[in-house]
């Protein structure tokens, strides 16, 4: 009997040992970040001070090297939903009930809290074009900025950025390609759907990638309209004209089983820089 107890204890210790080797401590934070070129990443590291200037004035991204890097909003949510120790960040407009958004500095991430300036973590959704664009591209942009288009923006959980009147375009025929940010893509799909009900002569192809790819494609002429979930860089502004079509909050998300419901800005910064590595350090 004594030998059996010792054997069971030994097996338990071995299981704990190998589990720890495979996945780290049971409360180790698993950081999930977007890829380089993502506008969401660019906005996030700027807003939380994870990007800092070095002695030469160059901006350095201090996101921890231990982060799991993924290339779309949907994969961030899937990854966080599948790991109880994970944390990531996404567009507020893309948030669903598969994950939990934490309060930041005690404030819940909502459209209303962004509008009343209580929630500080938000960024613009931009589209960008060259100076000379097709009649269809211009008409689609006119729709987006009209009260009809901005209603689509607000109906999908974003904040309107234009106060222009109802759409009264020319409804030209043709095809345009819109490419870029995976954060902007969901609302752009809704805008496309609404516009095509008004202009059945048009064809719009939307290609989801990231903000930098969208801007490069617009500059190279491989798409008509680029999408960016950040401000345009100086190098991009030399060739492109930006237009803000919506404002969007950033939500910091955790697994639904995670008991943590509030984090300070400094804690988020520490987590994504790799300075805070255990949930025990931020337990409420």
UniProtKB/TrEMBL annotation:
It is found in: Cell membrane. GO terms for cellular component: plasma membrane. Keywords: Lipoprotein, Palmitate, Phosphate transport, Signal, Transport. The keyword Lipoprotein applies. Coiled coil: none annotated. Signal peptide: none annotated. It is a lipid-anchor. PROSITE patterns: PROKAR_LIPOPROTEIN. One of its GO terms (biological process) is phosphate ion transport. Its main location: membrane. It comes from the Bacteria. Residues 25-147, 167-281 form the PBP domain. SUPFAM superfamilies: Periplasmic binding protein-like II. Belongs to the PstS family. Part of the ABC transporter complex PstSACB involved in phosphate import. The complex is composed of two ATP-binding proteins (PstB), two transmembrane proteins (PstC and PstA) and a solute-binding protein (PstS). This is Phosphate ABC transporter substrate-binding protein.
């Amino acid at each position: 009997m004594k030998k059996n107890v010792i054997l069971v204890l030994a097996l338990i210790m071995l299981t704990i040992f190998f589990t720890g080797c495979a996945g780290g401590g049971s409360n180790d934070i698993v950081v999930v970040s977007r890829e380089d070129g993502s506008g969401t990443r660019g906005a996030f590291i700027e807003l939380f001070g994870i990007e800092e200037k070095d002695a030469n004035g160059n901006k350095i991204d201090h996101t921890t090297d231990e982060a799991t890097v993924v290339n779309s909003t949907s994969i961030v949510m899937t990854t966080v939903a599948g790991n109880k120790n994970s944390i990531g960040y996404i567009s507020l407009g893309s948030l669903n009930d598969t994950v939990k958004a934490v309060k930041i500095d005690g404030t819940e991430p909502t459209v209303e809290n962004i509008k009343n300036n209580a929630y500080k973590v938000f960024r613009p959704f931009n589209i960008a074009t060259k100076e000379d664009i097709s009649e269809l591209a211009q008409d689609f942009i006119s729709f987006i900025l009209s009260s009809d288009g901005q209603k689509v923006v607000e109906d999908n959980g974003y904040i309107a950025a234009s106060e222009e009147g109802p759409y009264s375009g020319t409804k030209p025929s043709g095809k345009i390609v819109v490419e870029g940010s995976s954060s902007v893509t969901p609302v752009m799909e809704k805008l496309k759907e609404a516009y095509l009900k008004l202009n059945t002569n048009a064809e719009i192809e939307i290609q989801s990638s990231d903000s930098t790819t969208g801007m490069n494609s617009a500059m190279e002429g491989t798409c008509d309209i680029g999408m960016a979930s950040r401000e345009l860089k100086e190098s991009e502004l030399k060739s492109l004209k930006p237009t803000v079509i919506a404002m969007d909050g950033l939500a910091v998300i955790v697994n639904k089983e995670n008991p943590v419901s509030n984090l300070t800005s400094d804690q988020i910064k520490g987590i994504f820089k790799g300075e805070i590595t255990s949930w025990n350090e931020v337990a409420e």
